[in-house]
Amino acid sequence: METTALISPFLLKILLLAGGTFLAWKWATRKRTNYPPGPRNIPVLGCTWALDHKSPITTFSQWAKQYGRYYYCKLGKDNVVVVNDPALVRSLFANENCTNRPEVPGARFRKEEAAGHCGLIFAEGLEWKEHRRFVLRSLKDLGVGKRSIEDKVAEEAEYLTSAFRNTNGQPFDNKVPVSTSVANVIANIVWDERYEIGDPVFQELMDSVFTLFRTSFASAMLGSYIWLRYVPYFSGVFAAFDRCAKTIAAYFWRKTEEHLATWQPQNDRDMMDAYISSMKQNEFKTFEAKQMSFMVEDLMEAGFETTATGLRWAFLLMCAHPEIQKKVQAELDANIHDGATIKPADKANLPYTEAVIAEMQRWASFVPFGVMHAVEKDMDLDGYTLHAGTWILPNLYFIHHDEKLWKDPFEFRPERFLSAKGEFSEPDTYMPFSVGRRKCPGETLARIELLVFFGTILKEMTLSLPPGVAANLQPLPGATLDAAKHSLIAVPRKR
């Protein structure tokens, strides 16, 4: 008793903290059963201490060169196997044991709010299978791959062309007009509505989505240790993300309530009506109003942000490579009559344009890691053990820039997607929409949008940068790799 009294409360806290830190370090650095080799992980931070936070893709690529087909690391407390080989990505993502998702904070908060429901992207098991089946069916029923949706995309492409033309040859930031036009396509499918450029409510929604897609060291650590939201600095980052998440969620819940109030039997106006019809008919076990709100939120966020980012990269790359822009325009002029609408069926006559779009997706790899999968049950990988819950991160950026797979990978060279006969083709090493059981359900729509928007703009306009301004092709880090803020000049073509 006397000895204990000699230790001050402050010293006791220091000893407990030191002891706890030591035990945490021993736990974090213990040899896990048979994980693959990888970079050094330290307590709490894992491998994040070693990342180039201005360009995490650079560090992940360096480790890929060092360790080969795959390697093990920890992102904070989470065990991750990074896969750098396209054949292995295809094999793992075709395996039903690898179709789970990591439970990130956003998904966890959704489940707490809605009795286990969490939308489409992070859904698992029966909920994922039912909602994916419904989304693919609804996209088909609502016109994706048919004339109706082609006409809608063409309409929005003409709207975007008018917005470019109205800049009167003056420098402008194309982020808002491109994002609005692309978003109008998916909005028309999901809730049968469109927005004008600059609509304040929709602009707030887009700004919130853009913020959530920009990740940082702080957001990565919050993803692993949500309790950091109570720690200074991290609390500010969390508050900003939380505001955006709540703004987005409230927007889509309003849409859900509107549809629930105006739904009429046998009169489905859009995907949300189709969902309510299925829900009322008890077609699927996991359908519920809050889940519908989360699902359409996922579809909208992923549907417009990625395609809009790709288009902005495509336009910027045409400014950086005017000789390629001229080749695209020559092909369009030879195959698309003036005033005619570009249609997906035209791609057979536009192999070079298709190759430019594919090369943009490869070169920019603006979805650098896709969406991570998680292992459901312990499994073997070349004698190593992937424990249940391990994240599988497909290193798509590295795969698209691996010198063993692509000659001069950092050069923008559309010809790599053309055969000796000039025909367009995609190798198995190219996977911009991911692969396997959980590949992007909106791939068909995204391909239509990229071709029609890109082709329509270049058919009508010549793009360039302001005089004396060089193209900044260094991507901004995030869940998607956005182009740095820039201005374009769009001048109507004279033919």
Number of DSSP-assigned strands: 8
The CATH homologous superfamily corresponds to Cytochrome P450
Q: Total helix count? A: 17
Strand order of the largest sheet: 1-2-6-3
Q: What gross morphology would you assign?
A: globular
What does this structure look like?
With 495 residues, this protein is an alpha+beta fold. It has one domain: Cytochrome p450, CATH 1.10.630. Helices cover 50% and strands 6% of the residues. It contains 17 helices and eight strands. The chain has a four-stranded mixed β-sheet. Strand 1 (70-75) and strand 2 form a beta hairpin. The protein starts with a helix and ends with a strand. The model is unreliable at 1-6 (pLDDT under 50).
Q: What are its keywords?
A:
495 residues, Cytochrome p450, four-stranded mixed beta sheet, two-stranded antiparallel ribbon, 17 helices, 50% helix
Secondary structure: elements and pairs:
Elements: H1 2-5, H2 9-28, H3 56-67, E1 70-75, E2 78-83, H4 86-93, H5 105-113, H6 125-141, H7 147-165, H8 175-191, H9 200-213, H10 217-224, H11 234-262, H12 271-280, H13 289-320, H14 322-335, H15 351-364, E3 373-374, E4 379-381, E5 384-386, E6 391-394, H16 396-399, H17 443-460, E7 461-464, E8 489-492
Parallel strand pairs: 2-6
Antiparallel strand pairs: 1-2, 3-6, 4-5, 7-8
Helix pairs in contact: 7-8, 7-17, 8-13, 9-11, 11-13, 13-14, 13-15, 13-17
